[in-house]
Amino acid sequence: MDWSKLERDSESICRPVALDIRTVCEAILVLLPNKDDEAEVEIMVVVSPDVPKSIFLDETYIHRILMNLLSNALKFTRSGYILLVVEVEDGKLVATIKDTGPGVPPSFLPQLFEPFKQAQTRGSQRGTGLGLSIVKQLLHNMNGSISVESKHPEVEEVEPGQTGSTFTISIPIQAGTEVSSLNSKTLPKIAILHGGNERAIEGLQIAWEKFGYEAVVAHDAADLADIDWKYVWADIPFLKANPASLEALLKQDKWTILVPYDTLHPIHQIPSLEPAPQFIPLPRPLMWHAFAQRITAAQQGPVKSEVARMVRFAPTVDFVDEDDKSSTPKSATVKDLVIMLVEDNSVRLVLPIFSSKTSYTH
Question: What is the largest CA-CA distance in the chain?
Fold first, then answer.
């Protein structure tokens, strides 16, 4: 349906509005399909600090473009990382989506943006073959462009651990605020202690460097001595596998330790972290622009780790009969209809079930 509409109205006019691209990225991550639990993929979003708070873009178009590209990367990437970097260069918004998936076969690259075409890639999933075609058409309507670089095993110099694709889009913009440049003379330093695979570490280095930091990979806490680190990055797998480094980090108070977590690697797996004020939990997926607010909030008081998504059933429900105002709550039985409460972070949604005479509320 989307493709048919674009074909009918190929010269549709964009409707730019003032928006914060950081908010757009946050909305996309909420809607992004859940990654496979078996896939060890780090999803990272970096909006460069020099990107203005307000830029003029068609919000629907940019949301759809980034959503399609990230969903496509998530579909094919089984390990490593997916990284979205947003920058401003020469009056253009430049967004780069880099993944460590299988890459695109060289023979298919010329057909990549044609409608109803899909590459036969190992681990690929069925689809319409229209996602990238829609992206290209939307960019055309915004006077933008897209390019792709891919590393595929069919190319002789590409080893299996080096595969991946990088999509780069460029869109002319009018900034609502003045664009400021990063101070490259004195970059703050961050040490990365990581328990994952090498490709995920590569992605973290790229992300921090794009955010204006000098990122250095360390092997244990002993490597951190005599350096003025702004932050130390230590994930749950590393801390569990290196008790000596964990003990050393718990004893020191000069560094702030950033600890990413999710449902697979929750903070409570290491009980000693929760009362330690120098350890700041960061929920996945990782959004660099949100780190400062999270760090400030954590330093003001204890922060409990959240569960990203939960589903549970309510053991007790209120039965409200429209004809009987004196109805009181009662315990649910196997014969009663049950309300399912879906809780997504701080947003709570009750799914009510209605009969012809009775409504159920929570």
Answer: 77
What is the DSSP code string of 112-152?
Answer: TTSTT-----TT-----S-HHHHHHHHHHHTT-EEEEEEE-
CA–CA separation, 191 and 214 (whole Å): 9
- How far is Cα 130 from Cα 116, in angstroms, rounded to an integer? 6
* Residue 201 burial by Cβ neighbours in a 10 Å radius (0-12, 13-18, 19+): buried
Local structure of 355: helix, strand or coil = coil
Pairing label, strands 174-175, 316-321: unpaired
Report in angstroms the alpha-carbon separations of 340 from 184, 311, 346, 351.
52, 8, 16, 6
Q: CA-CA distance, 279 to 293, in Å (whole number)? A: 15
> Mind listing the pLDDT tens digit for each residue in 292-330?
888 888 877 654 544 444 344 445 555 555 555 555 555
Whole-number Å distance between alpha carbons of 203 and 200: 5
User: Best-predicted range by mean pLDDT among 161-165, 257-261, 262-266?
Assistant: 257-261
Residue 337 in tokens: 């209809």
Residue 350's SS3 state is strand
Determine contact, residues 174/142, Cβ cutoff 8 Å: no
* Average pLDDT score over residue span 128-156: 84
Q: Identify the pLDDT of residue 69.
A: 95
**Region of 168 on the Ramachandran plot (φ > 0 left; ψ -120 to 50 alpha; else beta):** beta
DSSP-derived secondary structure letter, 107: G
Least confident of 31-35, 85-89, 330-334, 351-355: 351-355
Q: Which residue has the tokens 């109205």?
A: 9
Contact 78, 41 (CB under 8 A): yes
Please provide the distance, in angstroms rounded to a whole number, between the alpha carbons at the two ends of the chain: 38
Residue ranges of domains in the chain, CATH in brackets = 2-175 (3.30.565.10), 189-286 (3.40.50.2300), 309-361 (no CATH)
* CB 112, CB 156: distance < 8 Å: no
Identify the bridge partners of residue 151 per DSSP, sorted by sequence position.
Answer: 164
Structure confidence by residue, pLDDT tens digits, 66-114:
999 999 999 889 889 999 999 999 999 999 999 999 998 888 888 787 7
Whether the upstream peptide bond of residue 16 has omega within 30° of 0, thus cis, is: no
Mean pLDDT of 166-181: 78
